[in-house]
Design a protein that fits this description.
Chains: A alpha+beta (149), B alpha+beta (287), C alpha+beta (747)
Helix content of chain A: 25-40%
Oligomer: heterotrimer
Strand order of the largest sheet of chain B: 4-5-10-6-7
Largest sheet of chain B: 5 strands, antiparallel
Number of helices of chain B: 11
Order of helices and strands of chain B: EHEHEEEHHHHHHEEEEEEEEEHEHH
Radius of gyration of chain B: 19 Å
Helix content of chain B: 25-40%
Shape of chain A: globular
Largest interface: A-C, 54 and 58 residues
Order of helices and strands of chain A: EEHEEEHHHH
Strand content of chain B: 25-35%
Distance between the termini of chain B: 54 Å
Distance between the termini of chain A: 43 Å
Largest sheet of chain A: 5 strands, mixed
Shape of chain B: globular
Structural class of chain B: alpha+beta
Number of strands of chain A: 5
């Protein structure tokens, strides 16, 4: 039995220890917003926050999250009340196929929590573990920058 | 898919040592897991037990004691990159740590894991080698302090026994007149394995170089010091011709250790250039 | 023009930022069986025996399928049907599917797949197209190893070279490039209550998938329903069948829902690649810079199967001259089968490769003639009235010269950078790359359809079969409908990319959907308006000729107070009013001997300028900035167009510097590198809107053009920086350093 705080709510779930956090989120908790792009920590599509830090959930075994705080895209904002990053991504054309978007948003959130007004270089660094094949990153960086301002 | 195993989370070192003593080859230590999980997923490892050492307080500390800095084996690369202590007394290590993989990997991966995984391209090894770091290895049998080099047996092979844990890594605070530089070359600027890395530390006395330490990564089967080049420069005045000869020695050392490969024609001139660049940078950092 | 040229909210963006969009692997179906493909580890072999017994013993395994279980045609392919879904007796590349395991868990299917024993009799394998075309090379397919040879002849090449005062001749090569779309292929299949087999997965063309699956299962079309899931990128890699037939076969037999998701490793191994081309290029010009002759020989590696090999061979040939007028042209373009991974469609269909060659040649000609690289391009640029290499006379929307002029304005602002004393090993350079790209399929019927409907409830519904793959076609096509109807976007419902509900629009490929389906929508709306007026005429008791539709209202030419919403017409008559739309661009078939004809109705043009920094001691290239100027006809949604351009440049950086798929060695993103946020230049997009009269509101297309000029511009910039040219892509560390060393020796 694993206990942790998921998107602000304490949960308790029975899951074998060889499951990754990504698998738990997607297959048992129905949170499919977090994506699997490679399974080996090389694309960032599965990025979630663990105690506020961006991590690849495909490389986190579930016992690791015991007693900790996990945030996924589903906890970021709602249809009625978008997170400023979500709104900014839409406004800046930062979303194309969208498969990298949830991970990208989580990396951006981790950055802004530590550094509310990041420079372009700091943004580049913060999302350098999130591959995007569609946008060329520029509009994503503009979207993050706009929230920081 | 990752095959099943039992997962143990010891609360203290003694408990961890006991578990490893009991399970031996059936167990694997997991710290950050960034390399281990890939090996599990690819079927390269099938342990019955994973022993998670990241909740042992002792392994999670960065400490300054008796003129030395000690870093717990389960300290993450991100923590090292931003640690004021390491930035002050071992900047070359925090610089290298800040360039590993991606932010996500740095938030998960640990220094102990990076050392024990023993990749030829391990980013922390060249800096640790020029820092002349020591590793503290603990098991139920006792405790020993060994030079970091001696923990590496070969590519992806450490000398740790199945029941041993790398508890911490320590190095002496650098002399304030000792400065360094770290150069990393990769095919891509974000998230790529180093094609070559060079760590240099040196001390300066007027125009002379004192205490020259050079280490390379990714071009030899295991990262290593370049002793011949070091002694050639030690106590000598800083001049470009001398650097050139020293850099040649590095390149010959590489060929000696790795043999001539299809990549040698590229790596040989590049390692020369980068060694020169690194020494020059370190020397300039001292001005 | 209220909805055109406006950045309306991208329809899919909200769900995507919420993580609520469902991609192939996100579909949750009750009690599914999971599927896993067992593949060949031999490049070329006869299958002697496949032993399943041990695998069938694995707990949780439901069934294992082989080629014998296929009820219909076990051959797929967009042009030539030469690719088995499951190999029966022979495998042709490492990755060819042999068996399909269905089981209760992914673990069970994985375990079973390792227990299937395949006995092979190995055959000699062919690694290069040159080898493949040797007289006694073992044939990979019954009809031999030459997939296609296409010839293009214009004027007299001998005369052309006789007139030339300078001739440049070189060979250029490119390698396999992976689409690297971020979503691994995945999806579900099940039987619905009406005995239809439903497949939901990412794709670029639901109607093609339906045809292939139906004949594979020997079912009537209408018993197969393909629904496109949200698609995480495609770039041509999802034009061919990926997982559809596997899902179909298992669901067909098992009568239970099935699900499968490829691992990234499988995606790299088995999805098509960009064709490696070897391009021998000879061009001649007069002293004044005018091109007199271009002679090109192209040999490509299509790998084990045909896929889009023929298209790539022909399109590369048709575009071989670049966007320039050349009086004498001769091109031979061939594609050969090998036992390498199969190549297919990849953003540009051969044009990215050929543009690298023609733009290198243009710079070399300029250099030989001591001309400005921009000047030589301007002198030769196509214009209205120009005749292309296929003899097509261009009538409108030829913006190449404008893109060159805009780039020239930018270049004036770039100051020569002095050597950096802190970094004496850095050289800077700038380079230009231009391109042209024919919109739509090459010299063949290329139709699309659309329907617009007014329901008795007052709804307005647009039906299109178009697969939006993230680029934003849903939004752009709805903008076109909204503008043409004069009705707000949000009042129009969109039903799309579902074979049960929509009709065939052709593939989302060849940068064609805005232009072709956009026109089909306009045609549908025109027809709808006619019907609305007929109905309104009897409803209002007014002469039909006095009525017209404007701003979504039926109006009267004299009675100015009349304004009946078109939805009201349907509501009051109680009828569904439906406008059918169709469009097929005006093209002609290319002559089989000479390749002459009008293969496209319109062309897009672009020029990029790249500024690079080269580390001459390591060969490391940093692209600092790219000015990307595109003639798109008309930007319906400027932000989407800009997004395509910036994304295209990033992919171009990868193509130029780092992307190389090495069969057998490339496994995953660890060793297939695509640019990260730290590897991309600043991009300054510039839109030239030289409107295309036949395009919807003047639009052409931009998807592929966005990518094409970047790599040529970057390679020309590297040559400018180091004084030596690289003829093989990618310009990786080793190749750049080698070129630097060569330049030093020549000094």
């Amino acid at each position: 039995m694993i206990r942790f705080v998921l998107n602000g709510k304490e949960i308790e779930v029975e899951v074998p220890p060889h499951w990754t956090l990504l698998r738990l989120l997607r297959e048992k908790l129905g949170l499919t917003g977090t994506k699997e792009g490679c399974g080996i920590g090389e694309c960032g599509a599965c990025t979630v926050l663990l105690d506020g830090l961006a991590v690849n959930s495909c490389l986190i075994l579930v016992p690791k999250v015991e007693g900790r705080r996990v945030e996924t895209v589903e906890g970021l904002g709602s249809r009625e009340s978008l997170h400023p990053l979500q709104r900014s991504f839409i406004e800046h054309g930062a979303v194309q196929c969208g498969f990298c978007t949830p991970g990208m948003l989580m990396s951006a959130k981790a950055l802004l929590e530590k550094n509310p007004k990041p420079t372009r270089e700091e943004i580049k660094e913060a999302i350098s573990g999130n591959l995007c094949r569609c946008t060329g990153y520029q509009q994503i960086m503009e979207a993050i920058e706009a929230v920081g301002k | 898919m990752i095959p099943p195993f039992q997962y143990k989370i010891p609360k203290n070192l003694k408990e961890a040592c006991d578990l490893l003593w009991d399970y031996r080859e059936k167990a694997k230590v997991i710290a950050g897991g960034t390399d281990l999980i890939i090996a599990l997923r690819n079927g390269l490892l099938r342990p019955e037990f994973l022993i998670d050492i990241t909740r042992i307080a002792e392994l999670r500390k960065i400490e300054e004691k008796d003129g030395a800095i000690s870093i717990g084996g389960a300290v993450t690369h991100s923590e090292i990159a931003v640690s004021p202590i390491i930035n002050t007394y071992g900047k070359i290590l925090s610089e290298a740590a800040s360039q590993i993989g991606s932010p996500q990997i740095r938030n998960t991966g640990t220094i102990g894991g990076n050392v024990v995984n023993a990749s030829p391209a391990a980013d922390t090894l060249p800096p640790l080698m020029v820092l002349e770091a020591m590793g503290k290895v603990v098991s139920k049998e006792g405790e020993k302090e060994v030079p970091i080099e001696s923990l590496i047996q070969g590519p992806y092979r450490s000398t740790l026994l199945p029941h041993e844990i790398l508890v911490s890594i320590s190095f002496k605070k650098l002399h304030p007149h000792m400065k360094g530089s770290f150069i990393r070359l990769a095919r891509r600027d974000g998230m790529a394995i180093a094609r070559m890395s060079i760590a240099v530390l040196l001390q300066r006395e007027g125009i002379r170089m004192k205490q020259v330490r050079i280490s390379v990564g990714a071009i030899t089967p295991t990262p290593q010091r370049m002793k011949e080049a070091e002694s050639f420069l030690e106590d000598q005045p800083f001049d470009l011709e001398r650097l050139r000869v020293a850099s040649e020695k590095t390149s010959s050392e590489m060929v000696l250790r790795s043999g001539v490969r299809p990549s040698t024609s590229y790596k040989s001139p590049v390692v020369k250039a980068l060694v020169m660049r690194a020494i020059q940078q370190a020397f300039e950092n001292l001005q | 023009m209220k909805k055109i040229g406006v950045n309306v909210l991208k329809l899919d963006a909200l769900d995507k930022v919420l993580g609520a969009s469902r991609y192939g692997g996100d579909y949750c179906i009750p009690n599914p069986l999971y599927l896993k493909v067992v593949r060949s580890d031999k490049p070329h072999a006869k299958i002697v025996k496949v032993e399943l017994e041990e695998a069938l013993q694995v707990k949780g395994v439901e069934r294992i399928f082989t080629a014998k279980d296929i009820p219909g045609r076990n051959r797929i392919g967009i042009i030539q049907k030469d690719q088995p879904v499951l190999a029966l007796d022979r495998v042709r590349y490492v990755g060819d599917p042999i068996a399909l395991v269905a089981g209760e868990t992914v673990e069970a299917t994985e375990e079973a797949s390792q227990k299937i024993k395949v006995t092979y009799e190995e055959l000699p394998s062919i690694k290069t197209p040159e080898e493949a075309l040797q007289p006694f090379a073992p044939p990979i397919h019954e009809k031999g190893n030459l997939l296609v040879e296409f010839n293009l002849v214009k004027g007299d090449i001998q005369v052309g070279f006789k007139e030339a005062e300078v001739i440049i001749e070189n060979t250029y090569t490119t390698t396999w490039v992976d689409h690297a779309y971020l979503e691994p292929d995945g999806g579900v299949a099940y039987w619905d209550e009406e005995e239809r087999l439903v497949i939901i997965c990412p794709t670029q063309n639901v109607h093609y998938d339906q045809r292939e699956v139906a004949s594979f299962l020997n079912l009537p079309f209408e018993r197969v329903r393909i629904i496109q899931s949200t698609t995480g990128g495609a770039f041509g890699g999802r034009l061919d069948i990926t997982i559809q037939c596997f899902l179909a076969l298992a669901a067909f037999h098992l009568k239970r829902p099935v699900k499968m998701v490829y691992t990234r490793e499988e995606v790299f191994q088995v999805i098509s690649k960009r064709h490696p081309l070897k391009i021998h290029y000879r061009s001649g010009a007069r002293k004044d810079g005018r091109l007199t002759a271009v002679e090109v020989d192209i040999l490509g590696d299509t790998g084990a199967y045909a896929s889009y090999g023929t298209t790539v061979a022909i399109r590369a040939a048709v575009h071989a001259t670049g966007p320039y007028q050349v009086p004498h042209v001769k091109v031979r373009s061939r594609m050969a089968y090998t036992n390498n991974p199969w190549s297919g469609a990849m953003r540009g269909f051969g044009v990215p490769q050929i543009a690298f060659a023609h733009e290198s040649q243009m710079d070399l000609l300029a250099q030989a003639l001591k001309m400005d690289p921009l000047e030589i391009r301007k002198i030769n640029a196509l214009q209205i009235g120009s005749e292309t290499a296929t003899g097509q006379v261009l009538r409108a929307s030829v913006g190449i010269r404008k893109t060159l002029e805009r780039i020239e304005e930018w270049r004036r602002k770039i100051l020569p950078s002095p050597l950096d004393s802190k970094r004496p090993f850095i050289r800077r350079g700038i380079g230009i790359g231009s391109m042209w790209y024919g919109i739509g399929n090459t010299g063949m019927a290329n139709p699309s359809t659309a329907q617009i409907e007014l329901s008795p409830k007052g709804e307005i519904i647009l039906y299109i079969g178009v697969a939006d793959i993230g680029q934003g076609s849903d939004t752009v096509l709805l903008q076109i409908a909204s503008e043409a109807l004069g009705i707000e976007l949000k009042e129009i419902q969109l039903i799309r990319a579902d074979t049960f509900l929509t009709t065939d629009t052709g593939a989302t490929s060849a940068s064609r959907q805005t232009y072709i389906t956009g026109n089909a929508i306009l045609n549908a709306i025109g027809n709808l308006k006619k019907k609305v007026l007929q109905e309104a005429s009897s409803l209002l008791n007014e002469e039909e000729k006095d009525l017209f539709v404007e701003d979504g209202l039926v109006k009267h030419r004299q009675k100015l107070c009349l304004g009946l919403p078109i939805q009201e017409v349907a509501r009051r008559t109680g009828k569904t009013i439906r406008g059918e739309g169709h469009f097929d661009p005006e093209t002609t078939r290319l002559d089989p001997e000479t390749g002459q004809g009008s293969p496209y109705a319109t062309y897009a043009f672009a020029t990029h300028l790249a500024e690079v920094e080269v580390d001459i001691e390591t060969g490391k290239v940093k692209v600092l900035r790219v000015i990307a100027c595109h003639d798109v006809g008309r930007a319906i949604h400027p932000n989407n167009v800009i997004g395509q351009i910036i994304g295209g440049v990033a992919m171009g950086v990868g193509f130029a510097l780092m992307e190389e798929y090495d069969p057998g060695r490339t496994i995953s993103f660890v060793n297939y590198l695509i640019p990260t946020s730290k590897d991309i230049p600043e991009v300054i997009p510039i839109l030239v809107e030289d409107q295309e009269p036949s395009g919807p509101f003047g639009a052409k297309g931009v998807g592929e053009p966005a990518l094409i000029p970047s790599a040529p511009a970057i390679l020309n910039a590297i040559a400018d920086a180091i004084g030596e040219r690289i003829y093989h892509l990618p310009a990786n560390l080793e190749r750049v350093l080698e070129a630097v060393q060569k330049a030093k020796k020549e000094d």
